[in-house]
Amino acid sequence: MKMTKTKNITLVTVCNNHFAVMLAALLKSIVENQHGTDFISIYIVDDGISRKNRRLLESIIQAPNFDVIWIPIKKAVPKHIRLPLDNSTFPLCVYARICIPYFLPPGIGKAIYLDADTLVECDISKLWNVDITGYGLAAVMDKAKTVSARWAGIKNYKALGIPADSLYFNTGVLVMDIKKWREDDIPKKVFRFIEENIQYATFPDQYGLNVYFANQWSVLPAHWNSYAQDDTPNPHIIHFTGMKPIYKGYQFNEHYRSRFYGYLSTTPFRKFKPKSTYHRLLLKVLHILEKKWSALILWFRILAVAFGTTFKSATNP
Predict the structure, then answer these.
(1) Rounded CA gap, 114 and 119, in Å?
(2) In this structure, are strands 118-120 and 237-239 parallel, antiparallel, or unpaired?
(3) Which of 44, 128, 225, 261 is least crowded, fewest Cβ atoms below 10 Å from its Cβ?
(4) Closest among 200, 212, 205 to 156, alpha carbons compared
(5) How far apart are CA 127 and CA 200, in angstroms?
(6) What CATH architecture applies to the domain 8-274?
(7) For residue 167, what is the enclosing H or E element?
(8) Neighbours of 164 (CB within 10 A)
(9) Mean pLDDT to the nearest integer, 189-195
(10) pLDDT above 90 (res 137)
(11) What is the pLDDT of residues 50-70, one digit of tens each?
(12) Whole-prediction pTM value?
């Protein structure tokens, strides 16, 4: 009988308390479809998940070859990194995926990033085994397809010297060469691209990563990031882009929705009922207010430093 070598697989996701129910289904899907002997470490960047929900989420993963490591959002983002205060409705925690090379242990050279609103429909080792040699990142082409797409893409691609037909990827599922990211200091460069072009960052983290990796990323087949608006044959990973199935207003792929609630029904979150779409809109408003508040605090700090320096100069000629 042929023996297969056991691997150490590193997964990373980011979640807040509102989407803990989606993370529950994701974790269940990973566990249920993992059939090999590989050891899987799941790093969860915690953006305010309640203690109760953390306990419930941990109870989903009761297998000896799984390990869950919680990373508080404040520790995930280094102090020397200032998150861009864009004008989108996305929460600031979307930037945590760019910081993965900072908070993973030094010995880890590769990682798979998964959005919390995804489901894994196969053994995740299949994605881990994809060869990305020569690339810092592998991803699936976004619904926008190219950087010149009007509703997404990179609106200032011409000014940046990026060809109009350059493919544009979605950042919900990423295979990352962490070693290369560290060596090339990629997070710092991506954040700089976003900060310098903040008015064009409609999808902020996605904008920065697509600018940096323009024509330098490995293209994964569509089944590794199957969007809920489509009907991809044999989806390996389902991604609930747009309206999530936790809202009553969900109108996308019904089969994908049933898969979500199928996994959820075997978790401690089984009694969850879809929320009103107004909850979604309120959340978007809160995200905007969070950024406005952060911007205000930043300006107060700048003024404090400026006035402090002026005072010292006046009293110490």
Answers:
(1) 9
(2) antiparallel
(3) 261
(4) 200
(5) 32
(6) Alpha-Beta Complex (3.90)
(7) strand 167-177
(8) 12
(9) 94
(10) yes
(11) 999 999 999 999 888 999 999
(12) 0.87
CA–CA separation, 236 and 298 (whole Å): 42
> For the chain, which residues make up each domain, given as ranges?
8-274, 276-317
Task: Give the count of alpha carbons within 13 A of 221, CB side only.
Answer: 11
Using the CB atoms, write b or e for 41-53: b if 16+ within 10 Å. Answer: bbbbbbbebeeeb
3-state secondary structure of 38: coil
The one-letter amino acid at 207: Y
Nearest one of 259, 248, 235, 256 to 126, comparing CA atoms:
235
Instruction: Report CA-CA distances (Å) from 142 to 94, 149, 223, 226.
Output: 17, 10, 12, 10
In the predicted model, what is the mean pLDDT of residues 102-112?
A: 97
pLDDT-derived band of residue 286, with 50, 70 and 90 as boundaries? low
256 near 238, Cβ under 8 Å?
yes
Per-residue confidence (pLDDT) for residue 307, from 0 to 100: 56
The Cα 263–Cα 241 span in angstroms is: 18
Dump the DSSP string for 76-139.
HS-TT------SSSS-GGGGGGGGHHHHS-TT--EEEEE-TTEEE-S-THHHHT---TT-SEEE
CA distance 13 to 30: 12
pLDDT at 3 over 60: no
Angle between helices 204-212 and 186-196 (to 10 degrees): 120
Q: How many residues does the chain have?
A: 317
CB distance 21 to 113 below 8 Å: no
